[in-house]
Structure formats: C-alpha cells, structure tokens
Design a protein that fits this description.
This protein has about 450 residues and is α/β, with parallel strands linked by helices. The chain folds into two domains: about 180 residues, Aspartate Aminotransferase, domain 1 (Alpha-Beta Complex); about 250 residues, 3-Layer(aba) Sandwich (Aspartate Aminotransferase, domain 2). The protein has 16 helices and 14 strands. Helix 4 crosses helix 10 and helix 6 runs parallel beside helix 7. The radius of gyration is 21 Å and the shape is globular. The N and C termini lie far apart (about 55 Å).
C-alpha cells in the first residue's frame, strides 16, 4: 500500500490549552466588544487569528538564540542574517526592522509622497494603511478571477497586466513610485503569483521606468505553488525559484514572522545601493542603527536560520498540506470558501455562508464571532471592517469579498485541531438560516480600524 503522508518534524515541547464553556465565551466576547483582537489568549482554545509570529521555532532556531551577539553595532548576528538574505534572495544590501510594517514605513518614507499612485495586487491592510497615511492611493490590479471564490484558478494572486498597463499609461510616471507584488497575496485568500506574471510585471515596469517591490512575507509558500502549479518550474528547486522570483525585484519588504518562522522581526532588501542609503536614514530614525534595526542579535540569528528552514521543500509540503487538509474537511461539509486553498489559511466566503445577514452589518465579522462562541476558535475578518472607510467620503468601503480567514500557525496544531475547527464551522453552517442580523460599530479608529474597533450586536 502507499504510505500515508506524515509531517517532517516531531514534537519536543507542548503548551497547555484552556477549554471554556459557551457561557464563558458569551461573557468574554461581550467584554471584548465583539472584536476578537481584544480577547485574552487564555480565553481562546484554538487561535487561528494570524500566522504572524505564532509559529513554533525549531531546535536549531532556539540554539541560534543562545548564540546571539547583542553588540549595538556590527554584531556577528547582523552578518549571519546578511549572508542568509544574500544566499536565499540574492540581495546585497539589507536593513533589519522589527517587523514587516516597519519595513514598509521606512521604504515608503523614501518613495511615496502625497498624490502618488501605487498599483499592485490586493495590497495588504498595513501596506494600504501606510500608502493612505501619506495621502497616496493604492490601486488594485488583481486578476478578476480572484474575486470569484468558486473559480479554481491556480494563480489568483496574479496582477492583471492590462489593468497595470492602463494605470501606467493614464498617469504621469513620476506619480507612480513603485509597483507592489504581494506574494502570496493575502487579501483574496493567500493566493500565489506565478513566476511568469512576475516576469510580465517586470517587463511593463521596465517599459515605463518604474520600480518593482515584492512584499515577501510568504515568498517561500509562493515558490512552493510555483513549483507545484507552474509546469515550467516543476523540476526546479525551491531555492532556484526563489532566486529567480527576486531577480525581477528592485527591493523587498519582509515580515519575517511568517515564512522565516520567528516571533518578531523583518527587513528590507535592496538591489540599488543608493536606495539602501536613502532608506538607512529613516531606519536609524524609526528603528535603530542599520546593523540591528529594532531587533536583538538573538532574534536575527533565529531569523537567519528560519530563512533556511522555511525554504526547505519538505517543510513547505507539510505546512501547505495541513492547510489543505482543513480545506478538504470544510469542502466535505459543503462550506463555501476561496478555491483553490491558499498557502497559509483557508478563507471562508461569508457572503455565501451567511446570505441572510445584510452586508452593511459586517457578515464576515459576524461569522468570526459565531465561530468563537461555538468552540473558542479565534479567526479574523478580511472584509468591510478591514477595508476601512474611504479617506475622502468617510463611507464604508465594501470589498468584492467578505471572508473569514482561518490562519494556520506553522508547526503548532495537529489534525485533531483542524477537525475540531471544521466541526465548529459545520455546526454554524447547519443553522445558518437562523442567523439574520449582524453587528454595528460603536467606536472606531480613523485608519486600520479592525484592530481596535468596538461593536455590538444588532437585534
């Protein structure tokens, strides 16, 4: 018989989880003002809020932590991280930052000014926040297939080349400081970008003289999908694919809390020395000196080791198969979700799941709350709350998709946890017709409101 799949790691240490009653959860979510970001971690049984900084580090990463050099300038840990970035990504220049949004803040302080346009594929929430904070505009050029969750397209993260070229033709090139490729593309479902699409974007960018920036938070997962879905690369190694991906970029921003499997850290990497020098000024101002940038030496060591581990095929295969396992269980129950499954999460289609809840009552957030009440599972909304208000009209922006994201931390949970999560969603789906009202906002921030918003039930 064929041997069943097994993970390429074993468990050395465990952490206890606390179970709770429905009554407990009703009290806690009310106190949290129906925002799961406000819950305490010990009020959550299975935490699928994010895969950012929530993974389990390896024995080698923990060993590297003990070897960290905490010198203020010129630490050996900086050079270990520099060597890893050069070897894996091919960039000579880099700046450490404490996390991905800090990298965006540094780079965008150099490149973006008021009135600019930044085209890309479904900009992530902090990316769009940093752009709009500078009174610029994020222009979504994602392929249309990304917004139909029932369509099984292998690269729903792709940029539509015609849409991109249209933006570049209709606007002065000096108003377009960069094109951003988010790989994988989180907002429409953790969907990958093909290498051919990255090449095509580079070709258009060269024609107009515009930089290409890759948001590399989940670059290794993207490379895995290129190897397994793009025929021309099926015989290439992950390392070969990664190097080619980044060969088409002028710079990258990286939240290392994802594919480098660390709890904190990020960086910028550059092709041009001049851009590196300009960004260094802001890095020192916002983050710290250029050889630590808000990171401890021990964290830089763990990050460097994590980059190597995160680009191993066997690890990526285990990681993405676990996400797919949850997707298949939900498929068996008939639960609507983004197809095909993404690399780091399953994205449930809340519009199709809760059709009786009006969209202006935040369908996806309502489903987040229902899932927590059902079994103590914490997920996150990728929908109208995250889309924020239009910066000019202050009206709610309604995105094409209302999604509940079940984000799987790396090397943390077992199949039983996936089965439990799927059963919770099935129970809600079985009574979906009785859920007819959602939530209203009581208090919100002016930007990135979903982190701190306060809500209350309607009816």
């Amino acid at each position: 018989m064929n041997l069943p799949f097994a993970e390429c790691y074993k468990i050395k240490m465990v952490e206890s989880l606390r179970k709770s009653t429905r009554g407990d959860r009703e009290k806690w979510i009310k106190e949290a003002r129906y925002n799961v970001f406000n819950l305490r971690s010990n009020q959550v049984f299975i935490d699928l809020l994010t895969d950012s900084g929530t993974g389990a580090m390896s024995d080698k990463q923990w060993s590297e932590m003990m070897l960290g050099d905490e010198s203020y300038a010129g630490a050996s840990s900086y050079y270990k991280m520099k060597d890893a970035i050069r070897e894996i990504m091919g960039f000579e220049y880099f700046l450490p930052t404490h996390q991905g949004r800090a990298a965006e803040n540094v780079l965008f302080s150099v490149l973006i000014k008021e009135g600019d346009l930044v085209p890309g594929n479904s900009h992530f929430d902090t990316t769009k926040g940093h752009i709009e904070f500078r009174k610029a505009l994020a222009v979504d050029c994602t392929v249309d297939e990304a917004y139909d969750t029932s369509v099984n397209h292998p690269f729903k993260g792709n940029i539509d080349i015609d849409k991109l070229a249209g933006v570049l033709k209709k606007n002065p090139v000096e108003k377009i400081p960069m094109i951003i490729i988010t790989a994988t593309c989180n907002t429409p479902g953790g969907q990958p970008v093909s290498l051919q699409n990255i090449k095509d974007v580079r070709s258009v960018a060269d024609k107009f003289g515009v930089r290409v920036i890759i948001d590399a938070a989940r670059f290794a997962e993207n490379a895995y999908f290129i190897k397994t879905r793009e025929a021309a690369y099926k015989d290439k190694s992950i390392h070969e694919i990664v190097l080619e991906m980044f060969s088409y970029a002028d710079a990258v921003t990286m939240s290392s809390k994802k594919d480098a499997i660390v709890n904190m850290g990020g960086f910028l990497a550059f092709r041009e020395e001049e851009l590196f020098k300009q960004a260094s000024v802001y890095n020192i101002l916002f983050e710290g000196y250029i050889t630590y940038g808000g990171m401890s030496g021990r964290d830089m060591n763990a990050l460097a080791q994590g980059l190597h581990e995160g680009t191993e095929f066997d690890y990526l295969d285990s990681r993405i198969r676990q996400v797919g396992y949850l997707g298949k269980k939900l498929d068996e129950y008939g639960i609507p979700m983004q197809q095909p499954y993404g690399g780091h999460a399953i994205f449930v289609d809340a519009q199709r799941f809760l059709p009786n809840v009006p969209r202006e009552e935040f369908q996806a957030q309502k489903l987040v709350v229902e899932l927590y009440l059902e079994g103590g599972v914490r997920a996150v909304e990728i929908g109208t709350l995250m889309a924020d208000r239009d910066p000019v009209t202050r009206e709610n922006r309604y995105p094409k998709l209302e999604l509940l994201r079940l984000t799987i931390p790396r090397r943390v949970y077992t199949k039983n946890h996936m089965d439990y999560t799927a059963a919770c969603l099935k129970n809600i789906y079985d009574r979906r017709d009785s859920i007819t009202r959602g939530l209203r906002i009581v208090n919100e921030a002016t930007i990135l409101r979903h982190f701190t918003v306060e809500l209350e039930p309607i009816g």
